[in-house]
Design a protein that fits this description.
The structure holds two protein chains of two kinds. Chain A is of the alpha+beta class. Chain A folds into four domains: about 180 residues, Dna Ligase, domain 1; about 130 residues, 2-Layer Sandwich (D-amino Acid Aminotransferase, Chain A, domain 1); about 110 residues, Glucose Oxidase, domain 1; about 190 residues, no CATH class. In chain A, a hairpin with a 4-residue loop joins strand 12 and strand 13. By secondary structure, chain B is of the alpha/beta class. In chain B, about 40% of the residues lie in helices and about 20% in strands. Chain B is built from eight helices and eight strands; from the N terminus they run αββαββααααββαββα. The chains are: A alpha+beta, B alpha/beta. At the A-B interface, helix 22 and helix 25 of A face strand 2, helix 2, strand 4, strand 7 and strand 8 of B.
């Protein structure tokens, strides 16, 4: 009998010891999971912020973000699996599925379109998929020749399809992909090796007979047009080049090519896709190897007297009405390579030849065609060395081009031109010019004195410039016939205006906030918007033409062309670029949260559609695992305790040791709390006003309250679940669900000041994103007063403070406790920025004892 | 008369309307009223704050009257005496005295008015008018698809009637 008892005691003891070890291990996984959780949330917030359009980023950013995201998320899922005895295999499956979808979005592949091998320039414009068919340079040349009507020589384009045929004929595609896979941006040695090998295999390949035939036929046609048998200029026209991105000078150009060498030079140009420089540039810009495709522009060689470059907008003086022309004698290559110091003409758009600012250096050498093919450097005849390459008539003509091109493209252009021996100017290339937008803005005067300012007050909600007739919107009906290009003027902001945003030139309101919903939408549509002007509806007359300068908060009478033109430069934004589109696609697969309510049947891995869903699910399950809730497991004594309080706030406690004074029962009174951080926090929580029972006789309307909120919060019943806290004497990790938000407070408070820290993490809400964001701002502001270092994005906030003495840490925890209660469902209330400020003050005065 | 106006044409959308959870204090409610007056100046002036519960269901309306009554309960308690002679209000002395601060900490649920009646968004405005007069309320919630979509107020309806009577 005695023996039996002792055996039992022994068993119980070892069992208990094992339990403690298990718990410690589980807790380590849990910590890992929380860390990954925070990382993922921060990554998501960052990616979303990049989509606002105010940031520059490249494919590298997306790739590394996605990599990190997938890595952290698998850590998270793995940690959950470790905690739960690998019971979450289906979540791992879901993660694989979602990550592969994200990868797919990341590796969206552009196919080379099927097209004729060769197209005459006359048949080419920028329309349709022609850019992908003939490459950027060809497409722009065709556009200028056929739709702008400037003098472009005859010529033809070798298409990207020809490139594909070339690869297929020689069975190169797989080999190229394989070779390209060998090198990484970090490894420049391998880059050189790979480049060499690639060039070799291209050189060793054979131009397919049908392509050679097509080239010859195109040449014969060209000779007919030219009435002679010209030598040729062959320029690279890579897909992507000169269009969304500039690959200026990355690829080969061959001048003065005899027709018999066309096929050979074609291979040379294709090979130049793979020069180390071009490869590096390509990868650095975030293009994918399989997107590399080369077209070639073929034109008769022009006997150039002088050549050069025209920037339709001086890149250093983008705010002024000034173009820049460079010129050298002979062929233009020396103007761009810097071999010769070129003439510089800084030419204002307005005014005669006398205002041209000329810099004419000595030009000792020039590049010229050599008879029979090729080019050579020769000395410039002495009488021409110091002479300007261009006369006033020619400058005037280039300026006419500049105006026409800017008018057509709506953005500044970088033009290569040549002047032939008969004094005729030819355009050889036109591509978008990157002009620094910031500079343009900074260089402009705040107020243009020569125009009447009608209104100069208010708050800018979306930068930009727009002009058009004033349209007063008083009621919804006024939106129905809103004219294209009208300036919407209204008393207050309304998200309903979104219906006319695509055609509005600008929006001005008397009241409203730049952080309001309409302002968000305005930014999404990039509509210049000024809110809170106070008097716009009184000052501005319907039908009156105005120019809205939402960069400097001025509204001018009439149309101010200077402002509008500088605006055009800004529209060439990232939004069209493949890199932006890709991020958008990726974010769509990452950020939206579909799993809202843990009580729903659809709260399962199968219903996870985004990374956010996975994270949400894993976080929820980790809590349950930690407390072994659900799954029908018995909660043993010594594991989870219940905190007793008269608050509508259920808290489960897991004591790692020394966190609570053990009683006999599983219920713990607040007096039994020993954990220093939790004691302080709980004091704050209980000091606040809590929702008492609802007054008798008052029935809630059986309708969800605000429809917009309802949509956001659909299925999101407030968390009726319990909150969980893990405690020890000096530590707490408190996951709080209150109302519709989640917050997490982790703290260590002990005598070693260096060990002390508080991490505070807050996310969510049941209200509109706008109001949730306001609440986050409120919390951030208050936390700032508590000297916590805080970062927040959207409705997600992280704060940290460390290394204060215990009593100061405790004080902060107590305030965080108060704040947690104070902000319960506060987001609903925050309908304006003003009220946010009031509530910040209210909390600081009433609860934090801050006077002022 | 072509197509009589519906309630939804005149209502104020709910997102524009200030609201507050029922456990918040009068003090907090007053801050909202004051802020709303600034924010909506000119477009409309909310003379009430909507009160909701944890599940975002509408519980009641807090009017300016409710707030003032809540701050000074003697208005309610001493009505018999004051009723007899309103000049006797002087007897109440310093109206909003030292108790004011304390009273401003009362939860709004103690003083709000319950929702007496609602109207559907698609109802004609005549029905809204009838209900308001019958129930003696100045405003009521508008229901659409089982949700509260907005608030309709007597003053907006009045404006509509004065259009009819006076022309533009």
């Amino acid at each position: 009998m005695n023996l039996l008892k002792r055996a039992w005691q022994y068993l119980a003891k070892t069992n208990k010891k094992k339990k403690t070890e298990d718990l410690a291990e589980k807790y380590a996984h849990f910590q890992r999971l929380l860390h990954a959780n925070n990382q993922v949330l921060a990554l998501m917030a960052d990616m979303e912020e990049k989509l606002s359009g105010d940031y520059l980023f490249d494919f590298q950013y997306i790739r590394s973000s996605v990599n990190e995201l997938c890595q952290e998320t698998s850590t998270l899922v793995a940690s959950l699996n470790s905690m739960g005895g690998w019971r979450y295999q289906d979540l791992s499956q879901a993660l694989l599925r979602i990550c592969s979808e994200v990868e797919k979005a990341l590796h969206f592949k552009r196919e080379i379109p099927v097209a004729p091998l060769v197209l005459p320039l006359e048949a080419i414009t920028l329309e349709g998929n022609l850019v992908e068919v003939v490459g950027g340079k060809n497409a722009n040349l065709g556009e200028v020749k056929n739709r702008v009507g400037l003098p472009v020589p005859h010529g033809f384009a070798v298409t990207s399809y020809a490139y594909k045929v070339f690869l297929e004929h020689n069975q190169l595609a797989a080999r190229i992909t394989e070779l390209l896979g060998w090198w990484r941006l970090e490894d420049l040695d391998s880059l050189a090796r790979v480049s060499e090998e690639l060039k070799e295999i291209v050189q060793a390949a054979q131009v397919p007979p049908e392509l050679e035939e097509a080239l010859n036929r195109a040449y014969e046609r060209l000779a007919e047009q030219e009435h002679n048998r010209p030598l040729l200029a062959m320029r690279s026209s890579a897909v992507g080049e000169d269009h969304t991105f500039t690959f200026a000078g990355q690829y080969e150009t061959y001048l003065n090519v005899p027709p018999a060498e066309m096929a050979a030079r074609y291979k040379d140009i294709v090979a130049s896709l793979f020069t180390p420089r071009a490869l590096f540039y390509y990868k650095n810009k975030g293009f994918r190897e399989e997107e590399m495709a080369m077209g070639v522009a073929v034109m008769p060689m022009i006997r150039a007297r002088a050549s050069g470059v025209l920037f339709t907008r001086h890149p250093e003086m983008a705010d002024q009405e000034v173009a820049l022309i460079n010129a050298v004698w002979g062929l233009g290559r020396y103007a761009v390579t810097g071999r010769v110091n070129p003439d510089q003409y800084v030419v204002p758009y307005r005014g005669g030849p006398e205002v041209v600012e000329k810099t004419i250096p000595a030009k000792e050498v020039m590049l010229v065609n050599t008879p029979g093919g090729g080019v050579a450097e020769v000395p410039v005849p002495p009488e021409m060395v110091q002479a300007p390459c261009l006369n006033d008539r020619e400058i005037g003509q280039l300026m006419e081009w500049a105006a026409i091109l800017e008018g057509h493209y709506g953005k500044p252009q970088d033009v290569e031109w040549t002047l032939d021996e008969d004094g005729r100017l030819w355009l050889l290339q036109s591509r978008p010019l990157q002009v620094s937008v910031k500079k343009a803005r900074a260089g402009r005067p705040r107020t243009l004195k020569q125009y009447t300012v009608l209104l100069d007050q208010g708050t800018v909600a979306c930068r930009g410039v727009g002009a058009g007739p004033v349209v007063l919107v008083r009621r919804q009906e006024d939106l129905k016939n809103f004219p294209e290009g009208g300036v919407l003027v209204a008393r207050h902001t309304s998200p309903r205006y979104v219906t006319v945003m695509p055609q509005a030139a600008a929006i001005i309101t008397d009241a409203g906030s730049p952080t309001g919903h309409m302002a968000l939408l305005a930014r999404e549509f990039r509509i210049p918007t000024i809110v809170n002007t106070g008097i716009a509806t009184q000052v501005l007359q319907p039908g009156q033409e105005v120019t809205v300068d939402a960069d400097y908060n001025n509204i001018y009478a009439g149309i101010v062309p200077e402002l509008l033109e500088s605006q055009e430069a800004k529209r060439n934004d990232l939004a069209e670029t493949p890199v932006f589109q890709t991020l958008k696609e990726v974010v769509r697969k990452v950020v939206p949260l579909n799993l809202l309510n843990p009580q729903e049947e659809t709260f399962t891995p199968e219903h996870c559609h985004t990374v956010h869903d996975i994270v949400r699910y894993a976080h929820e399950m980790s809590m349950r695992e930690m407390f072994k809730l659900g799954e029908g497991e018995v909660v043993n004594e010594g594991e989870a305790l219940e905190l007793e309080s008269n608050l509508p706030f259920q808290v489960s406690i897991l004591d790692l040791g020394g966190g609570v004074k053990k009683g006999l029962r599983r219920r713990v009174k607040s007096q039994q709390i020993l954990s220093l951080p939790f004691k302080a926090f709980w004091e704050g929580v209980t000091a606040m006003r809590w929702p008492q029972t609802k007054p008798a006789g008052v029935q809630g309307l059986a309708s969800v309250f605000v429809n917009t909120e309802a949509e956001v919060a659909q299925g999101a019943a407030p968390y009726r679940d319990r909150s969980f806290v893990i405690l020890s004497k000096n530590y707490m990790n408190f996951s709080i669900r209150l109302g519709y938000h989640l917050s997490m407070v982790e703290a260590y408070v002990g005598d070693q000041i260096n060990d002390n820290f508080i991490n505070f993490h807050f996310q969510g809400g049941g209200s509109t994103s706008e109001r949730r964001e306001r609440r986050t701002r409120l919390i951030a502001d208050i936390i700032d007063h508590l000297d916590l270092h805080c970062e927040w994005k959207g409705d997600h906030l992280e704060a940290r403070v460390a290394k204060y003495p215990p009593q100061e840490m405790a004080q902060r925890l107590s305030l965080l406790g108060k704040l947690t209660v104070y902000t319960k469902q506060l987001d609903m209330v925050l309908f304006s920025e003003g009220i946010v400020d009031w509530y910040i003050k209210d909390f600081l005065q009433e609860h934090a004892g801050v006077k002022n | 008369m072509p197509d009589p106006k519906k309630v939804k044409n005149l209502m104020i959308p709910l997102e524009d309307y200030p609201h507050i959870p029922y456990w918040f204090t009068l003090r907090q409610a007053m801050a909202i009223v004051r802020e709303a007056a600034i924010k909506f100046e000119g477009s409309f002036e909310p003379r009430a704050v909507l009160v909701f519960d944890e599940k975002y269901q509408l519980m009641g309306i807090l009017t300016l009257r409710d707030i003032i009554k809540g701050l000074e309960p003697r208005f309610l308690k001493e009505t018999a005496l004051i009723k007899a002679d309103p000049t006797l209000t002087v007897l109440m002395g310093d109206l909003f005295g030292p108790n004011l601060k304390e009273a401003s900490q009362r939860p709004v649920s103690e003083v709000m008015s319950p929702i007496k009646v609602t109207v559907a968004a698609t109802d004609p405005i005549v029905k809204a008018l009838y209900l308001m007069i019958k129930e003696n309320v100045g405003m009521m919630p508008v229901i659409q698809d089982n949700k509260v979509a907005g608030m309709i107020r007597l003053s907006d309806l009045f404006q509509e009637i004065s259009h009819m009577v006076l022309g533009d």
